[in-house]
Amino acid sequence: MVTAEDIRALTASLPRSEEGVVRDQVKFRVGRRVYLALSPDESTMGFAYPKEHRAGLVAAEPHKFQLPRESDLRFNWVHAVLSELDADELAELVVNAWMMCVPKKVAAAYLDAG
Question: Model confidence over 73-82: pLDDT tens digits?
């Protein structure tokens, strides 16, 4: 099981990533683009994910992943239950979400350094 502190540690290592609070909800962004958000109780996270692949992700593991509410389906977004994720899966989801928001050169430099 992963925690909000695991997420904070990961996001702190990502270039241009910033943590902020909007209406009592912790959000992680690059500039003005949010790539990850924690629920107020920190039991779930919403994260950037390609629209064309999210239905498959949710269908494969519905106990772990859910679509956002209907009004948010227009965004590249999926929700995950933190208690169902392991550390490696969390790292992959967070880094991929972050990569959707940063310039390609920044993402490539981060991947090359890692």
Answer: 899 999 999 9
* DSSP-assigned letters across all residues of 10-31: HHHTSTTEEEEEETTEEEEEET
Q: Which three-class secondary structure state does DSSP give residue 44? A: strand
Q: Which of 44, 54, 109 is nearest to 83 (CA)?
A: 44
Strand partners, 48: 77
pTM score, whole prediction: 0.94
Percent helix, strand, coil in the chain, to 5, is 40, 25, 30
Q: In terms of residues, how long is the chain?
A: 114
Convert the pLDDT of each residue in 29-55 to its tens digit. Answer: 999 999 999 999 999 999 999 999 999
Q: How deeply is 71 buried, as exposed, middle or buried, from its count of CB atoms within 10 A (0-12, 13-18, 19+)?
A: exposed
